[in-house]
Amino acid sequence: MFKKGILVAGVLILSAGMAFATINAANFNDSKAEADIMITGTITDEETDAPVPFAKIKVNDLGTATVTNENGRFNYSGLEPGSYTLKIDADGYETYETQVEVSEEGAIVHIEMNPIE
């Protein structure tokens, strides 16, 4: 009888743990989906089509920024759907500003920068 009681108690504890894990997994997936909304893009030279490395992309609406990698690519994550103004600065190029609409799937942009002559 004692072994049966331990078995029942073990099953109840295991079931409660699984229910808790399922609830937390659902909450994690919801928050992860929001955090995965991002603007992904590339920045290139308008004349040569070469990537523009280390350009600063500022999201004016949030007051934060990111930088392109050596291939001119960038990701800006943690966004909510909506409209954002991007301001791009890079050495040797004119400042570029654009409006980007971000859906629940995010947004992909390709920006061509004008070299300063």
What would you say about this model in short?
By secondary structure, the chain is of the alpha+beta class.
Topology of helices and strands:
Blueprint: H1 2-35, E1 39-45, E2 56-59, E3 64-67, E4 73-76, E5 82-89, E6 96-102, E7 107-113
Parallel strand pairs: 1-7
Antiparallel strand pairs: 1-4, 2-3, 2-5, 5-6
Structure description:
- There is one protein chain.
- The protein has 117 residues and is of the alpha+beta class.
- The chain has 2 domains: 1-35; 36-113, Immunoglobulin-like (Sandwich).
- The chain has one helix at 2-35; strands spanning 39-45, 56-59, 64-67, 73-76, 82-89, 96-102, 107-113.
- The strands form 2 sheets. A 4-stranded antiparallel β-sheet has the order 3-2-5-6, with no helix packed on it. A 3-stranded mixed β-sheet has the order 4-1-7, with no helix packed on it.
- Strand 2 and strand 3 (64-67) form a beta hairpin.
- The longest helix is centred in the N-terminal third of the chain and has 34 residues, at 2-35.
- The model is unreliable at 5-34 (pLDDT under 50).
Q: What descriptors fit this protein?
A:
single chain; 117 residues; alpha+beta; Immunoglobulin-like; 2 domains; four-stranded antiparallel β-sheet; 7 strands
How much strand? 35-45%
Euclidean distance between termini CA atoms: 89 Å
- The CATH superfamily of the largest domain appears as Carboxypeptidase-like, regulatory domain
Main β-sheet, spatial strand arrangement? 3-2-5-6
Could you please say which CATH topology of the largest domain applies here? Immunoglobulin-like
For the CA atoms, what is the radius of gyration? 24 Å
Q: Count all strands and give the number.
A: 7
Order of SSEs: HEEEEEEE
Query: What's the domain count?
Result: 2
Structural class: alpha+beta
By CATH, the architecture of the largest domain is named: Sandwich
Low-confidence stretches: 5-34
**Percentage of helical residues?**
25-40%
Which word captures the global form?
globular
Which CATH class of the largest domain is shown? Mainly Beta
Roughly what is the average pLDDT, rounded to an integer?
Answer: 81
* Number of contiguous helices: 1
Largest sheet: 4 strands, antiparallel
